[in-house]
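Reopening this ticket.

The earlier resolution said the output was attached, but the attachment link was broken on my side. Pasting everything inline this time so it's all in one place.
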Amino acid sequence: MKKFLLFSLALISISTFSQSRKKQDWTEYVRSSIDPYVKVMLPLGDNFLKDSFDYFYGFGIGGNLNIYKNFGLGVEYTYFLANVKNGDKFGYLGAPSMNNFDWYVFHKDKITEDFFVEKILGYSTYRMKSPYLDNSGKFSEGNGGLNLGVKAIYTIDNEGFQQVVFGTKLNFYNAKIGNQNPDIADYYSKALFLNFSLAYRYNF
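Inline output:
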């Protein structure tokens, strides 16, 4: 009877340890972070945005969640202002701004104990607004497109809670503006953005 009880207790202990270990395998990699940042975005190619603006500049905040091991989900919100270089191309508009959301999945690679690289693939939405110079109302346009990029991450404390993040990303822009001439439609609706960001990341 004593041997049976000891055997039963051993089985229960092994089962409990196994369950806790399985749970730990899932949770030990789950970690969140928050990233306040500044960003500069350059329009590229032959399009209305490239001809109208030198660049966009702004600030925002991002959040990341490691789902399993090196994979995770992230989101960023950026508020941009624009530096207009050609008012004739932009029309009777002034003080343009853009609200930008980036949703993405990422994969993190550990290079050294203090240095990491994140590869990003996701989708972006944009809402550009500008008041008409004659005070007759506001111009507003919504659109979206894919994004892909990479972030270099350097840990600045011994515990690994604080990091500096430098990122670069390509954002595809498609406003879906129709025109009988496909070249004109593409000129006013499609663009490519190259952006650079510098962030302070806090992990928790």
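Reporter confirms the inline version is readable. Helices lie at 2-27, 48-52, 87-90, 182-189. Strands lie at 32-44, 53-68, 71-84, 97-110, 115-131, 138-155, 162-174, 190-203.
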